């Protein structure tokens, strides 16, 4: 498994990966129909294509040479001191194999000027919260409700 920059030729596989991980993670919270609606909007080809050219960002995939098993997208603030991890997903059947950690490590290395890495997470997503806590993240703010969902900001200081 290696981590590399995503390209146009990866977008269909990334879209499928996002649909699979969202259904595995959020069907119990939102229901399958709502997950279909969210993934159709947030993970459309146009949305994914825009990430390829987003300024001050990294769009990464974890690839074993045969298939993409994970992806991450992160973008820095204009001053480069804060990086927001917008997406980090690993196929459900590949979770627990270190792929998420590889992607997270690469995100951190891609932004050497950054002093803080932040992310927003669905409060009910206990496995992801545990993953980030185990990698040095802590809850930064009290949960905020957005579209009837409790969102928590987590952050990790960088050197």
Automatic annotation (TrEMBL):
> Gene3D superfamilies this protein is in?
3.40.630.30
- The answer to whether the entry has keyword DNA damage is no
Which InterPro entries does the UniProt record give? Acyl_CoA_acyltransferase (IPR016181), Bact_Acetyltransf (IPR050832), GNAT_dom (IPR000182)
Entry annotated with the keyword Transferase: yes
Q: What does the UniProt keyword field contain?
A: Acyltransferase, Transferase
Give the N-acetyltransferase domain ranges.
Answer: 1-159
Output this protein's name.
GNAT superfamily N-acetyltransferase
Organism this protein belongs to: Aquamicrobium terrae
